Amino acid sequence: MIKVILCDDHALIRRGIRDTLADAPDIEVVGEAGDYGELRSLMRALPVDKQCDVLVLDINMPGRSGLDVLHVLKDEGTATRVLIVSMYPEDQYAIRALRAGAYGYVNKGGDPQLLVQAVRTVAQGRKYVTPEIAQMLVESLTAPAPEQAHQKLSDRELQTLVMIASGKRLSDIAEELMLSPKTVSVYRARVLEKLGLSNNSELTVYAIRNGLVES
Predict the structure, then answer these.
(1) Do the Cβ atoms of 118 and 104 come closer than 8 Å?
(2) 146: pLDDT confidence band, cut at 50, 70 and 90?
(3) Rounded to whole angstroms, how far apart are CA atoms 159 and 184?
(4) What pTM did the predictor assign?
(5) Local confidence band at 72 (pLDDT 50, 70, 90 cut-offs)
(6) Cα(93)–Cα(90) distance, rounded to whole angstroms?
(7) 20 HSE (CA, 13 A, CB side)
(8) By the 8 A CB rule, do 108 and 10 touch?
(9) Which domains does the chain show, CATH number per domain?
């Protein structure tokens, strides 16, 4: 039996994923979490026979993002394999997530059965990529595409960009990320400099044009 933990800040999304996986006789959802803090508590509290094989993780969460969680788990040498399930298109986050240690990346808007297939693949210790991601990987090897400006951002800088473009104030971002407002301001300044932009309005336009947030 493949044991799975779901980590997504939207309860309805978690319910949808749980219902999809419930139809698979070889998959059992052993726990759910809405953020990194809940995830850590859950993973510590699970008995040995319920330790998960696959963590189905969202990228956009309050506090630590999915990318942050990937880095933490990788640094700790956790045996749990991570499958990213995100609303964001593959061309924006998939490669970044795989580089951070994810075993696979699935878009939330895709065929539910692909999620079941992805969980089974990841549980076997194999990488799961969609044909779109496979094509991106091949193209990057054979004819590297010009790097987009936001691809030069660190994970935290990218997270700051997305949150600003989503309409959040620096004070709100600081609270969610558990950082000081001064630190968030530094990240914002770095983003503006690296992207060659001047203000939050330009950041928002850039993020929408590049599919980093929904318009």
Answers:
(1) yes
(2) low
(3) 10
(4) 0.75
(5) confident
(6) 6
(7) 20
(8) no
(9) 2-142 (3.40.50.2300), 149-209 (1.10.10.10)
Q: Binning pLDDT at 50, 70 and 90, where does residue 155 land?
A: confident
Of the candidates 7, 159, 15, the residue with the CA atom closest to the CA atom of residue 80: 7
8 A C-beta contact, residue 84 and residue 57: yes
Written as six digits, the tokens of 131 are 């044909």
Q: Fill in the DSSP letter of residue 137.
A: H
Half-sphere exposure in the Cβ direction for 129 (13 Å, CA) = 19
C-beta separation of 179 from 63 below 8 A: no
For residue 165 the two structure tokens come to 């473009």
Q: Return d(Cα 74, Cα 57) in angstroms, integer.
A: 14
| Tokens coding 189 | 């300044």
Strands annotated E in the chain? 2-7, 27-33, 54-57, 81-86, 104-107
Q: Cα–Cα distance between 67 and 209 in angstroms, integer?
A: 22
Confidence (pLDDT) at 29? 95
